[in-house]
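Students often ask why we bother encoding 3D structure as a string. The short answer is that it lets us treat folding as translation between two languages. Here is a chain of 297 residues written in the first language.
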Amino acid sequence: MSMNDGIKIDGARVQRRGRGSATYAGIGGVGIIGMIVYFLLTGQMPDSSTFQGTENNNVTSADGADYSEECRTGADANAHTECWMVATAESLDAYWADALPAQTGTAYSQPTFVIFDGATTTGCGNATASIGPFYCPADQTVYLDISFFNQLETQFNTENSTLAQAYIVAHEFGHHLQNELGYLDRIERGDTGANSTQVRSELQADCLAGVWLRQASTTIDPESGEPFLVPPTEAELQTAIDAASAVGDDAIMENAGLTVNTESFTHGSSEKRMQWLMRGYDGGSIASCDTWSVATP
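And here it is in the second language, the structure alphabet:
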């Protein structure tokens, strides 16, 4: 999948932070794989309380820097991962700025988007790259170390495609939408299992990512008048579906050589993650992403 070369992007949309050093302190945010990565490291599936941040003065970052010099066009996005992140964020902004108020009556506010290297400070505590991409509701920011994308292939055995990358970012923006709409308040601390509030939240974020994916190739860049993205092929769409499957709770457990225990699920099974991503893609609206009122999401 690619951006149209002629679109105009603003590299200031995404902050860049240099390498920091931190003793792992935990995160109170919501991530696509954060808790699952913890499981890989410890052999235990944590609840949300495990990721409550604590102070650590060893973390450093270069606040205020961005990608203004490097990222200006769709061609830049197609050539550089950081610029792809900028263009993806601007496409998400453009779509949800119209869709969120039209469908819910709630105005869209852009989340901050930070690309960091190694470690950084957040409103939810100190973060290291091992946490994976996540959204921190305390500072309304999406955090991502792009080295994670290489892990898609090395740890999760799925293709590191641009559409898979876009799905991951769209999932985290989905958590921001949940925060705006009050859904994150429904998550119960320590609640795990296939029907838990944690899983319902993650599956809804997958679904919201699917809603955007359906509209991404028709969402217009206001500066150039061109759509942000070239329509994806079926094969490209499959890479996003595969990425969702790869980070299912059951897939992670099986890859670790452990027995699948549905009672410890925090993000949903591979089947459910694919199902809700495609439900959003096929339904094309927030209303199609109601994981909360169904008996079994």
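Translate back mentally: The chain has one domain: 11-289. Keep this in mind for the problem set.
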